[in-house]
Every structure is written in structure tokens, then in C-alpha cells.
Automatic annotation (TrEMBL):
It comes from Halanaerobium salsuginis. This is Inosose dehydratase. Its cofactor is Co(2+); Mn(2+); glutathione. Keywords: Cobalt, Lyase, Manganese. Belongs to the IolE/MocC family. It holds the Pfam family AP_endonuc_2. One of its GO terms (molecular function) is manganese ion binding. Its EC number is 4.2.1.44.
Length: 300
């Protein structure tokens, strides 16, 4: 399915080079190596990792040399279990940094009670929000959306394993409770991991296609997910074992996803995000392979 390169841009996340959730993975990889290899592999966008310069001017100079733009950076919200003012204060700083970098979306995840970074069984110990918590979350995201709009930006929710907004029902609840200016970040890997079927991935994309403003292209190795489930392992143990990989290297069929996006005239970034152990999965080699796969399937 052909996609229009004027409308859809391709990025890649630094997490394959250096994993912020597991700093021992890729500690040796430098920021310069990471962005140079992204560019060499044919990507024009990146998200932000913890080795990136925090001064927008310095960061922009390094990226411009390589033809790369910042398209998003992860932001953690804690509306259910901390005072809203705390999240809002941090959000404004994050928003202003991303705005200075020219990004148009802000991908957020509700991290209250999240177990994604903890040594807990990912399939059985995730949080479930109470009605009061849902109300706090919805009010908080409505506020963030208004703050983002002040800079002509959009807030989108990253549904994520190990959080209270992981399953289709939880995503539906979030989208119903929030205003129309709160959008969705679609992550193919997280919805497959949660539900275990291609149908769930396609259903979510189809259902919210008009409200999806950012896409993470992530593939899943089902044999690793089966072990994580059978042995009650944590999310990060799974990552180290190879839960995720680049599109085209796992179980997800990406052709139907590209078709849904193209037919809906999706405009925005698609970001390859495949955290693996860089000592086992060379990030540059995987980036080149991912870029080739996307070119073959979309013409981008
Ligand atoms: O967008 C993401 C950011 C990472 O920190 C996270 O754990 C990863 O799985 C993801 O989808
Ligand atoms: Co993601």
C-alpha cells in the first residue's frame, strides 16, 4: 500500500541504541553514534533519549547536521496518585522543550501504579483504576490538551503494558471520558502484547484512526511473550529476552496496518520503536532492515 511521503514521515526511537528503562542496555552507545546511524539508515525523525542534549539549541544543531527532527518525547503523568499540579508543572517544561524542537505531538502515559519498570508479573499484576481515579485522569488529560493547544500541539495517550490504560476496554474508557482534543498514540507492539491477536491490533487502529496522531511501529516475538506469561516474568525481563523487534521481524502483519493508515490519509510520524539488547541485536543493522521493510511495503 503506497503512502504519501509529504504526509507520513519516518522516525526511529533511540531506545534500540540505549534503553532509558534499562540503562545497562547500550550504555556504551553514544548519542552521536545513535543519531548518525538513524540518519544513515534513512530516517528523518527521532524521539528523545536520556543521552540527548537538553538544550534545544545544542540538540537542534547536532540533529540538523544529520537531517533529523524531533517528533515526540515520552511524558509520564501521575494524575491518579499524585497532585495534578505536579504533573502539570513538569508537562509545561516538557511541552516548551518539544515546542522549541518543532515537535507537534506530546506522547503521554499514565504511570500511576504502573508496573512496567518493576519486578512484577506483567500479565497478572497491572493496576486497574477506580472510578474516582478515572475521573482524575480524564480531567488531567483535558487540562494537558488545552496546555498543548497553546503551542499548537496535540496531547496523545500511549496505551502501554503494565499500566491502567492497556487493554481495548481501558483505551475505550479513556477516549470516552476525555475531550475531543485528547488524541491517541497507537503502538502496534503494546496492543498485540496485551491481546495476543492481529485482529485486536487492526480493530484498535480502525476504531481510533481519526484520533491517532502518532504511531509506534513495534513488532513482537510471540514465543518470548509466551514464556513471559508462563513464567510470570516482568515487562523488562521480557525486553531483555527479546519481546520486541522491528516491524517485519515478528508476528504482526504490517501490510493491513499501513492500508488502514493510508486509506484514512494519516498525517504524521510513524516511529520504529524496537527495544532489544543492542549487544544481541545490532541497532544499526536492525534500523537498516526496518527501513527497507517499510520502503517495500509503503513506498516511503
Ligand atoms: O513508547 C515506549 C517508550 C518506552 O520507554 C516503553 O517502555 C516502550 O515499550 C514504548 O512503547
Ligand atoms: Co511505544
Amino acid at each position: 500500500m503506497k503512502m504519501d511521503s509529504e504526509q507520513v514521515k519516518l522516525g526511529i526511537a533511540p531506545i534500540a541504541w540505549t534503553n532509558d528503562d534499562l540503562p545497562e542496555l547500550g550504555r556504551e552507545n553514544t548519542f552521536e553514534q545513535c543519531i548518525s546511524e538513524m540518519a544513515l539508515a534513512g530516517f528523518t525523525g527521532s524521539e528523545v533519549g536520556n543521552k540527548y542534549p537538553t538544550d534545544p539549541k545544542v540538540l537542534a544543531e547536532k540533529l540538523e547536521l544529520r537531517g533529523i527532527k524531533i517528533c515526540n518525547a515520552w511524558f509520564s503523568t501521575f494524575f491518579a496518585n499524585k497532585p495534578a499540579a505536579e504533573t502539570i508543572k513538569n508537562f509545561i517544561k516538557h511541552r516548551d522543550f518539544l515546542s522549541a524542537m518543532g515537535a507537534q505531538v506530546i506522547g503521554c502515559s499514565e504511570q500511576s501504579a504502573s508496573i512496567q519498570g518493576q519486578d512484577k508479573a506483567i500479565f497478572t499484576e497491572k493496576p486497574v483504576f477506580t472510578e474516582t481515579e478515572w475521573q482524575k485522569i480524564a480531567a488531567g488529560y483535558n487540562k494537558l490538551a488545552d496546555l498543548a493547544a497553546e503551542k499548537n500541539m496535540k496531547v496523545c495517550l500511549h496505551h502501554h503494558m503494565g499500566t491502567g490504560i492497556q487493554t481495548p476496554a481501558e483505551i475505550d474508557k479513556f477516549m470516552q471520558l476525555t475531550n475531543d482534543n485528547v488524541y491517541l498514540l497507537f503502538d502496534s507492539g503494546h496492543i498485540y502484547y496485551s491481546e495476543g491477536s492481529q485482529a485486536a491490533v487492526e480493530n484498535l487502529l480502525n476504531k481510533y484512526i481519526k484520533q491517532i496522531v502518532h504511531v509506534h511501529l513495534k513488532d513482537v516475538r510471540p514465543e518470548i511473550v509466551a514464556r513471559v506469561r508462563a513464567e510470570d516474568l516482568s515487562f523488562l525481563t521480557g525486553v531483555k529476552m527479546g519481546t520486541f523487534t522491528i516491524p517485519g521481524d515478528g508476528v504482526i502483519k504490517f501490510e493491513p496496518l499501513f492500508k488502514i493508515l493510508a486509506e484514512a490519509n494519516y498525517q504524521g510520524w510513524m516511529v520504529v520503536e524496537a527495544e532489544q539488547d543492542p549487544a544481541l541485536a545490532n541497532p544499526f543493522a536492525y534500523a537498516v532492515q526496518a527501513r527497507k521493510f517499510i520502503a517495500e511495503k509503503t513506498g516511503l
